[in-house]
Every structure is written in structure tokens, then in C-alpha cells.
Write a structure and sequence with these properties.
Rossmann fold, 317 residues, Helicase, Ruva Protein, domain 3, 8 strands, 2 domains, binds S-adenosylmethionine
């Protein structure tokens, strides 16, 4: 005779803390790849569970953790966790939101998940390299994606008109949604363009760019989560610098005399310095280290021989 079924503990009696612990365990067991804003299984669980049960992150305090979760909410939360595990899709594409410097952005698979280190610099930290921060009247975000950096530019330089360029019309649709959310339509212009091509002779006090810079070798072995992002947002050609080279070659034509260029290039400091030995790159410290974002002044770019390019060393594979 088989044993009588054990009475099931009602899952409805579980509180939010228990649900989060369960979600964290499932995510941790699945050995996923993070790197899209959340650092580990616990953070990912918080984002997914809070979204599924409709709890704003700002309200996730110790009192909320003790509250009971309804069976319907529990099921919804664990279903979202299961989707994250089975489809290997970044959490931000499931919740349709990503946070950068305290701002929330709408995202979906038409744009990469915002995580640029430039965002950290778009405040007082850039001031040493900008002649007159209060006087920035024109700024450009090249390769804008969701428009996250363009919006941060507009917020941090309140007198500036901002142009935000992308070659991808689907990405620009997402950007439009975020620009509308922040009611910046009058000050922030979205432009479909291959880098500077459609900008005519416009000059900017400040140009920022987080272009595609992933090497061909790295593209070939991207973890599944990164393959969910648009390839054109990541792929930077054989050595990763195909767009960076163009930006360096053309930026001076679009900077004011005292203008500043800020570019993110992954952790490729050594290689880019080897390619351009005469450019006096400056590497501000970010949470990613001091090897991923460089700053140059227009004067640096127009100095004789400054752009002499040596072949890139073989990228690390
Ligand atoms: C690394 S993503 C950066 C997106 C956003 N700025 C961010 O930091 O989250 C690079 C973006 O460059 C765009 N892109 C790729 N090639 C381009 C080109 N030739 N001209 C303009 N934009 C380009 C892609 O569509 C993508 O949105």
C-alpha cells in the first residue's frame, strides 16, 4: 500500500522573503550570465519578483518582506523566473525597464540594456575636461540606442540642445519612447544616421559615444544573454575598433574649438593606446575601472600626426 499523500504546506502562507529566497535559489542553480545591470542571482530575483507582483522597488523594505504573497502572485513570479532561465533572456527584456543613474528607461530587444560607464561621468565628474560646463549649449550622443545617455546629457546640461544618433530605426523607436517619457522632445532630437553622416556641419561642445566595440572573436562566443541584444549594437569589427576609428577620424569636424569627446571602448585601453600612440588619451575612473572610457579634447585630435594609426595588436580571444 502506498503512503498517504503528505499534506501540502499552503504556498500561500509564504511571505515575500521566502519567495525571493526560492527565486534566488532557482536562478543560482541555473548558472546564468549576469552583466545587464544586475550583478547576481539575488539582485536578479529581486527585479523579477518585484516586477511580477507589481511592487515598486522603492517599496521593497523589511515590512514588505514579511508580507504574505498570494498564490497568484507567487505563480506569476516563479513563471517569470522560469522564463529567464529557459530563454536566457536578460531580466530587463522581461520587465521592459532598466535603471541608469537613478533614471528608469523603457527597453526591449531593439536596443541593448543600458549599462554604459559614461553615465557615471555625466555629472560633475566630467567638469575637469569641459572648459565651461555651464556653457554647454550643444551636445551629441552618437550610437544612442535607448537614448539613455542622451537623456542623461539633457538632464545634466540643462541649457544644452542634444542630438541623439543611431543607425537603427527600431532602436530609434525605443529612444523616442524614452524621450517622450522624460518630456524632452523640444530639446532632444533623434537622428537616423551612420555616425556623423547626417549631421552636416553641426558642431558640439560635448560628444559622447558608447559605440559597438566587441571584437569578432568575442562575438563568436557571446553567452546567450548577450546574443539576445542586437548584434549591430555590439559588433565592432575584427579588432573591435571599426566604429571607434571613424569617430576619432571625424570627431574634430563636429567639435567646437574647445570641445570634448568621451568614448567607451570596453576594457581595451592598452590596445587603443597601442593603435594611436600619439593621442593623449585620458581615462577617468569609473566603476568599471580606468581602462574603458577615454576623454580627448578637440585640440588633441587635430595636433599634427595625432591620428597616425598602427595596426591593432591581435585582440585577446
Ligand atoms: C553599444 S550600443 C549603445 C546604446 C546606448 N548608447 C547605451 O549606452 O546603452 C551601440 C548603438 O550603436 C548603434 N549603431 C551601430 N552602428 C552604428 C552606426 N554606424 N551609426 C550610428 N549608430 C550605430 C546601434 O544600433 C546601437 O544602438
Amino acid at each position: 500500500m502506498s503512503a498517504p499523500p503528505r499534506p501540502r504546506r499552503s504556498p500561500a502562507s509564504a511571505n515575500l522573503a521566502a519567495l525571493l529566497a526560492q527565486a534566488t535559489r532557482r536562478l543560482a542553480r541555473a548558472r546564468l550570465v549576469y552583466g545587464h545591470g544586475n550583478i547576481d542571482a539575488r539582485e536578479e530575483a529581486v527585479i523579477l519578483v518585484a516586477h511580477a507582483i507589481g511592487l515598486p522597488l522603492s517599496k521593497l523594505d523589511s515590512a514588505a518582506l514579511k508580507k504574505r504573497v498570494t498564490e497568484a502572485d507567487r505563480r506569476r513570479a516563479l513563471a517569470l523566473v522560469a522564463t529567464r532561465i529557459e530563454k536566457r533572456v536578460p531580466a530587463a527584456y522581461l520587465t521592459h525597464e532598466a535603471w541608469l543613474q537613478g533614471l528608469r528607461f523603457y527597453v526591449d530587444e531593439r536596443v541593448i540594456v543600458p549599462r554604459s560607464f559614461i553615465a557615471e561621468l555625466l555629472s560633475v565628474q566630467l567638469e575637469p575636461w569641459i572648459d565651461d560646463p555651464a556653457g554647454v549649449s550643444k551636445a551629441l550622443d552618437l550610437c544612442t540606442g535607448s537614448a539613455c545617455l542622451a537623456i542623461l546629457l539633457a538632464k545634466n546640461f540643462p541649457l544644452a540642445r542634444v542630438d541623439a544618433v543611431d543607425l537603427s530605426p527600431p532602436a530609434l523607436e525605443v529612444a523616442r519612447r524614452n524621450v517622450t517619457r522624460y518630456r524632452l522632445g523640444k530639446r532632444l532630437r533623434l537622428v537616423e544616421s551612420d555616425l556623423f553622416a547626417a549631421l552636416g556641419k553641426t558642431r558640439y561642445n560635448l560628444i559622447v559615444s558608447n559605440p559597438p566595440y566587441v571584437t569578432a572573436a568575442t562575438m563568436r562566443r557571446l553567452p546567450p544573454e548577450y546574443r539576445r541584444e542586437p548584434a549591430m549594437a555590439l559588433a565592432g569589427g575584427e579588432d573591435g575598433f571599426s566604429l571607434v576609428d571613424i569617430i576619432l577620424a571625424q570627431a574634430a569636424r563636429h567639435l567646437t574649438v574647445d570641445g570634448t569627446l568621451v568614448v567607451e571602448i570596453g576594457h581595451h585601453r592598452r590596445r587603443i593606446e597601442a593603435c594611436y600612440p600619439r593621442l593623449p588619451f585620458v581615462w577617468p575612473e569609473t566603476s568599471g575601472g580606468d581602462d574603458c572610457v577615454f576623454v580627448l579634447r578637440r585640440a588633441d585630435l587635430v595636433a599634427p600626426g595625432a591620428l597616425q594609426r598602427r595596426p591593432a595588436r591581435r585582440p585577446a580571444t
